[in-house]
C-alpha cells in the first residue's frame, strides 16, 4: 500500500473506532431546549422554589467556571427539600412526603401520576446507592471551604434533578412534540441519560 494512503486509512479507522465506541452518548448539537419537546407539569411549589432561589441565588458565571459555586445549587435544592418537609428534622428523606409533595398538584386522572411515582422510586434507589459518595463530598467540602461556609448535601440536588429529568425522559408518547430535533432527543434518550444532553 502507498504509505500516504496507508496513513489516511489508519486515521480513518481510528476515528471510526472512536465514533462507534460507547461514545454514542457524547454531545448532541442542540438548538432546541429539550423541555420544549414535552411540557412536564410543575412538580414543586413555585413559592417555595422562588424563596429558596432568593436565599441561594445561582451565579451563572461562577457556575460555568466550575465547582466553586456548586454548593449554592446544592443548598438551593436542600432548602427546597427542607421547606417541603421532604427532609425530616434529622435531614433524612421522608419517602411518603417525597411522593405526596411531587404528586399532590396533579389531578387524580393525570397521565403523569404513574410517571412521577416511577421516577421517584428509581431516583431514591439511585440516591441510596450513591450515599457514600454524597457523604464523602460533604466531608470534602467541610475540609476545603472556609470555616462558616454553609455545606449542603449533594443528595438534594441529585434527587430534584433526577426526578425532573426522569419524568421528562418518560414523557407519555401522546404528549411528545415530534419535530426533527425533538425526535433526535427522544432517540438519544432511549440509550443515554438526560445529563448527557446538557453537556
Ligand atoms: C436544612 O435543614 C437542616 C436540618 O435542620 C439544616 O442543618 C440545614 O442547614 C438546612 N439547609 C438549608 C439549605 O437551609
TrEMBL record:
User: Which UniProt keywords are present, listed alphabetically?
Assistant: Disulfide bond, Olfaction, Secreted, Sensory transduction, Signal, Transport
Which coarse location class describes where this protein primarily resides? secreted
Annotated GO biological processes are: sensory perception of smell
| One GO location term (cellular component) | extracellular region
> Where in the sequence is the signal peptide annotated?
1-20
Q: Which InterPro entries match?
A: OBP47-like_dom, Odorant-binding_protein, PBP_GOBP_sf
One MF term in the entry's GO annotations: odorant binding
* Organism domain of life: Eukaryota
Q: Where is the OBP47-like domain?
A: 41-185
Question: Gene3D superfamilies given for it?
Answer: 1.10.238.270
Q: Which SUPFAM superfamilies match?
A: Insect pheromone/odorant-binding proteins
Q: Where in the cell is it found?
A: Secreted
Is tRNA-binding among this UniProt entry's keywords? no
Task: Give the family this protein belongs to, as stated in its UniProt record.
Answer: Belongs to the PBP/GOBP family.
Q: What is this protein called?
A: OBP47-like domain-containing protein
Amino acid at each position: 500500500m502507498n504509505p500516504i494512503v496507508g496513513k489516511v486509512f489508519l486515521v480513518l479507522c481510528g476515528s471510526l473506532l472512536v465514533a462507534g465506541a460507547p461514545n454514542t452518548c457524547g454531545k448532541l448539537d442542540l438548538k432546541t431546549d429539550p423541555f420544549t419537546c414535552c411540557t412536564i407539569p410543575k412538580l414543586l411549589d413555585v413559592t417555595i422554589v422562588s424563596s429558596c432561589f432568593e436565599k441561594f441565588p445561582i451565579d451563572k458565571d461562577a457556575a460555568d467556571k466550575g465547582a466553586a459555586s456548586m454548593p449554592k445549587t446544592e443548598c438551593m435544592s436542600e432548602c427546597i427539600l427542607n421547606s417541603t418537609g421532604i427532609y425530616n428534622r434529622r435531614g433524612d428523606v421522608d419517602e411518603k412526603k417525597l411522593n405526596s409533595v411531587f404528586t399532590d398538584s396533579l389531578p387524580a386522572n393525570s397521565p403523569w401520576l404513574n410517571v412521577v411515582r416511577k421516577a421517584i422510586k428509581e431516583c431514591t434507589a439511585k440516591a441510596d446507592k450513591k450515599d457514600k459518595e454524597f457523604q464523602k463530598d460533604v466531608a470534602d467540602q467541610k475540609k476545603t471551604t472556609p470555616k462558616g461556609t454553609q455545606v449542603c448535601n449533594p443528595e438534594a440536588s441529585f434527587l430534584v434533578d433526577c426526578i425532573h429529568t426522569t419524568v421528562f425522559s418518560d414523557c407519555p408518547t401522546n404528549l411528545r412534540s415530534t419535530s426533527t430535533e425533538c425526535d433526535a432527543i427522544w432517540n438519544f434518550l432511549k440509550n443515554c441519560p438526560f445529563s448527557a444532553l446538557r453537556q
